[in-house]
UniProtKB/TrEMBL annotation:
Alphabetic keyword roster: Glycosidase, Hydrolase, Lyase, Manganese, Metal-binding
Top-level taxonomy: Bacteria, Bacillati, Actinomycetota, Actinomycetes, Kitasatosporales
Assembly and interaction partners: Homotrimer.
Known role: Catalyzes the reversible cleavage of pseudouridine 5'-phosphate (PsiMP) to ribose 5-phosphate and uracil. Functions biologically in the cleavage direction, as part of a pseudouridine degradation pathway.
Protein name: Pseudouridine-5'-phosphate glycosidase
Catalysis: reaction(s): D-ribose 5-phosphate + uracil = psi-UMP + H2O
Xref: Gene3D superfamilies: Indigoidine synthase domain
Amino acid sequence: MVLVVSQEVREALGSGRPVVALESTIIAHGLPRPRNLQVARELERAVRQEGAVPATVAVLDGRPRVGLDQEELERVAGEDGIRKLGHRDLPLALAIGASGATTVSATALLAAGAGIRVFATGGLGGVHREWTATQDESADLGLLARTRITVVCAGVKSVLDVPATLQRLETLGVAVAGYGTDRFPGFYLSDSGHPVDWTLRTPEQVARVMRAQDALGAPGSALIVANPVPEEEQLDPELHARVLADALHACEREGVTGQAVTPFLLGHLVRHTDGASLDANLAAVRGNVRLAARVAAAWVRA
Ligand code: PSU
Ligand code: MN
């Protein structure tokens, strides 16, 4: 097995303790430095406070790692030239000895490979606006259609075409449930403006769905638990709409494409909301990490 699983994570998995996978792209490319390192540490601490073991995932010098020590976390947050790796990039990075942060798709693949069932992030990638012209759809969706993992997130990033993304998830057969809500959350916003068909209300209920997935067998697809940012911590919806329109224009004007699109849009929002989008993003991720830890605990108890 090429995966390097940290001793702490290995022992936790071996003894049936709860483990939560965390992605690293949000750290390396989704948040400004040096705040990103503080956040990476804070998220790991939050998982521990809830009684679970954090397993941040990244590739360092061509080795895929599940569970990072302090020095490794610092490299992900601060090293120049850290790449952004989707799951398709993993074999290339491994063969060449590259270092990179893992997106939702790469993290889900590696975490599932290590035997981890619960994963927390901010917002998933999805179908971009202007999809008909660019065909830009995050590889997150396709990978989650064939990976048995539970992803706790605040919906999909609001820079995307949310209804198109929900439709793709339906087409791909990925289960989606709101946590404590029948509205699909909107990442920076508590409500994306779109409904969700299923509502789950407790970590135990989420764990029961996971058991039912296993009982039903193939196809091994994900479960998306969409957990809204608390309303009092969301980004002002009007400010969001205004700055996002501006960000999308800037993206087009500057000819940003491919992997650079998401970090560009998120960065633009942070700069033009005076950091308010960052606060909302962090509030969402924090809530997701805590809920994921509780789901992981219910899962190992089950
Ligand atoms: N959620 C955040 N910030 C991020 C991301 C998610 O709060 O930076 C990252 C995730 O790693 C996700 C990726 O997988 O953005 C999607 O990128 P793309 O649209 O290029 O697939
Ligand atoms: Mn893309």
